[in-house]
Amino acid sequence: MDPTNKPKGPSPHYSLYQREVFKRGGELGLLPSFSVHPEELQDNTKKKLNDRGYFYANSNAGLGWTDRANRESFYRWRIIPRTLVDTNTRDLTTTIFGHRIPAPILFAPVGINKLYSPKGEFIPATIAGELGLPYCLSTAASQSIEDVAAANDKAAEVSNESNSVHSYNDLNGGNAKSPRFFQLYMGHDDDVTLSLLDRAWKSGYDVLMLTTDTWQLGWRPTDINIANYVFYYGGTVGNELGASDPAFMKKFGAELEKDSGKWIDSSVWHGKAHTWDKVQWLMEQWKSISGGRPFVIKGIQNAPDALKAHEIGCAGIVVTNHAGRQVDGAVGSLEILPEIVEAVGDKMTILFDSGIRTGADVFKAIALGAHAVMVGRLYVWGMSYEGEAGCRHVMKSLLADLDILMTVAGYQSLTKDVFRNKDVLKFNPHGIPPPHGDHAKL
User: Fold this and answer.
1) Which among 186, 210, 262, 320 counts the fewest CB atoms within 10 Å?
2) Neighbours of 93 (CB within 10 A)
């Protein structure tokens, strides 16, 4: 690839990362230390992590059929390439909740990141800041709200061609230098809930995302086999966000000292479902704290629920089945996306989650009406290898994959040429994906 005299477009030339990898190999003999092929990336984490880390990242509900349905849904939609299109510059940019970002990719909320690397959530927050992509912090994080925000800002302070695309001119309680959102698992103590919201807003998280599909963890046999619930093992990780919360510690600090599961059992995965009425209360509280910033529901899997979310005033939804980790035998998220887009696609922001592995997956989700996608397992697998370097390599590879796909498939702009355009895809209801591991490998 000729890197000289390349015209400047709305997006960086992420495709040049491919050349960078090739040049390091050819001139210096430096090869990547791990494969970014998604199947190998996943499988080989077993060599890097202990059983608790590996199975927490990779366990699925029941027999894993929902996780499989997610991938099969992508297989059935086929991209229709075009030729002789001027794709010398590509436009991957989009705007999400007032944030102009360089590509429609968000770092999904993933809990207990210290299971994958000692620096925990600092790693994806750092890489998100470097790239200018939104980072979403989980309530089940193993670092405090404030410290993760600081890591995100520190990385964003070093300007580059990717994060310099980001722009934002709306309210932010912490003068954030990079887009970041807060994902809430809502407990049943309102004082603790409001404390978390207040801390998030003051730390620069300007979108609240409520998860509604995980009042408790789904039945995951591979976690059951090793009693994989890190919170019940004294002296381990997982309570950092609760232990740093003044409202929680004032009420329950003494109990937490005696019972390491107090935070997770009462404020995160408590097993006591909320309803739409409580969601409305939460949204009102968030809007009061944030001056009206967006409230999003994560866990929508059907059109009636999407319509209800719009009816009560949600700014957006995340179409997700929690990556197949909650309900076994459920529909694939991409499978249900077109129905949800038909119902609310012109009324609210739709984020897509569950099963994104490649640039082609991003393309397909955008074509079917998602405004942006979220990735979680990909970056977790990357950080499991080499911390920041591994996470960076995986995310830069995903961006390069998407950018190259736009070039060779003949699509210049994601928003103009691909978004909600079913003419760029063809549905094939027949056949099943190749079996796991059926590809060329070293």
Assistant:
1) 262
2) 18
278-288 pLDDT, tens digit per residue, is 999 999 999 99
pTM: 0.97
Is residue 322 part of the annotated active site? The answer reads yes
Q: Which of 13, 99, 322, 371 is catalytic?
A: 322
Average pLDDT, the chain: 96
